[in-house]
Design goal:
Number of helices: 23
Number of strands: 26
Radius of gyration: 28 Å
Largest sheet: 12 strands, antiparallel
Distance between the termini: 64 Å
Helix content: 25-40%
Structural class: alpha+beta
Amino acid sequence: MSPKRATRRAAGAAVGRSPRPAAAEPAPAGAPLTLCFGVHDHQPAANFDTVFEQAADRAYLPFLEAVQRHPSFRFSLHVSGSLLLWLEQHRPRAVDRIGEMAERGQVELMGGGFYEPILPAVPERDALGQLERLSDHLERRFGRRPLGAWLAERVWEGRLPALLERAGFRYTVLDDHHFLRAGLAPEDLRGFFVTEREGRALRLFPILKSLRYAIPFDRVEEILARLRELHASASALPCVTYADDGEKFGLWPGTHGWVYEEGWLDRFLEALEGQSAWLATAPFAEALERFPPAGRVYLPDASYAEMTEWALPTAARARLELVRARLVESGLDGLAAPFLAGGAWPAFLAKYPEANLMHKKMLWVSDALASRLAEASLDAVGQERARDLLYRAQSNCVYWHGVFGGLYLGHLRHAVFRDLLEAESLVAPVAEATVERLDFDRDGFEEAWIRTPEVNLLVAPEQGGGVALLELRAARMNLTNVLTRRPEAYHEEIRAAARAAAGAPAARASEAPSRSQVGAAAGEAREKAATIHAALAVSPELARSLVYDPHPRLSALEHFLSPEADLAGFRGTAEADTGAPLARHCLRRAETGSAGVRLLLEREGTPAVEKELLLEPGREALSASWRVRGAAPEAWFAAEWNLFFFWDEDPGRRYVVDGETGPQLGATLEREGVREIALDDRPMGLSATLRSPDPFRLWAFPLHSVSRGEKGYVTAYQGTCLTLLWRLAGPDEQRFFVELAWRRP
């Protein structure tokens, strides 16, 4: 196609004139092929309004408008509860369109967990509650209860059939990866299968990866050719499944222009209409009535293939890639691929302790709510409010990381702690301070869990006696919500790309054009759109930003540094040595009294250290004091604190040193003779101050991570490290004192 003709075609699509569909070919012999087409739309409740708006206006609304113009295109649609609530308030026309199509039978609405939790990762009572809440909402708004459930990230565990059947569902959809791992052959993945648990049956539709990767990225003619192949091999059960994220239709980079401005979606829908002699679309619920089951199956715990890879430890992913390379060399990669299982979704909680801590705090609040409900001591309004906050905090997006930001997005982590603190205030209010010794994070070691009217404090003796959690009740904020910088598998891709680009100008990762954008810029017709899994361009500067922390970034940690230690070395290195153990502490005493809550910890080894943490009643402050004996002379004693704020480049977020306003939080500071350092967050309305009666050397620096998101590689501010240093005089006893205080102006 000439550039001029391609430009006319794109312009026609942009003003609503549908391009001519592909010419119809003779209908293949045999029964018509039924394509069960599913779309899943979701945004976490805590996402920014601008993200909701962009997703609605670039993907969800244009898609609904296009398919409504083609009533013969019949499909299933899942909209998460958090997105549905936003659409009802901000884009009611989108909800009206869904209702109109549902009324005429064009669309079947699917249910699921209201706020999109990973169902096996939450207590069964909450899973059932989330499922029921969305089903109730759909019934009130659209007049019917859903028969199918969308599973967040298609995470499957064997106990789900009983759970979903109890919640009133007849089917769900899963990736073909699940079925291939169970031993089925690719040619078997037609129609739907039946599974059961405890005698409770559920139907399972296998999503074909070949379609998931082709729609909407390949040319319409190529997709039709693939459907003809499926028709030819589906004589027994002429039914196949496609289902995937609605964000692919306009929100993923480059897809809005491809799908709408260049007319891909209109061409696709018109092509389906033009092939009606042998090809039809249908919602999943209708396929249940039209076709018999393809057989019985019992699936292993799984998600889609990419998710199982992301869940693996970084080193294990490297080993998996090595095995794959060897299999490719031997020509066995196709046969072996289904059996290279990767990890299970819960492995993210081991890979990322920060995700695990959020998860265990969520379970704690869920248990507290269940206790109040059992006691019947919470009124109906309080019950509903607490349950909604808990359910919001169970949204899956922040508990893992893959090709999307997820856990790396500080505002999503903050929202989880905020909602859980608000729910906690309803179900477990604090009148007086309490101290418990328990394995809060389920790592096999005991922590100290302190609750006062001002804060929640979790201290981990096994992790350097550090503060793992400091939640401020009034501010509804976890001040220690800091993500440790650690290696990710794609970091090697960044280094390799930077090495390859050395000596040549490189575009910034966020500005790097995709292959299809390059073609369009040159005036050429695009052959296909790039998928979100495509290789991304990177710059040498991004590779130099790969810095890892030598230990988890907790707070109230002490270190003994050599006389030659410097800030550059303390900030971290490019070496993947995270996970270095912090000195183990023993919790010698934990007590409450008129003076407040006092913890006494003793560090194992030499030098001898006693650390005391004190929360005084009525004060918004945490005091830490150390008594040190047997230290080497001229070494440094360092007290490390890692505190969470939102963005480091905001002019309203600054350091304040001894009362004088300093640079933004993105700066690195090294000062002598300091008595007080504050992080002042004007937009958030919170200031946190570290002070000591003895002047100290200050090292302060931002913690920047490098992660992969849907728009490319990005650096993200995860918090600020503040380290206070004093020279050690020698083996005689020395004492050091630091107070962390916070206030809301």
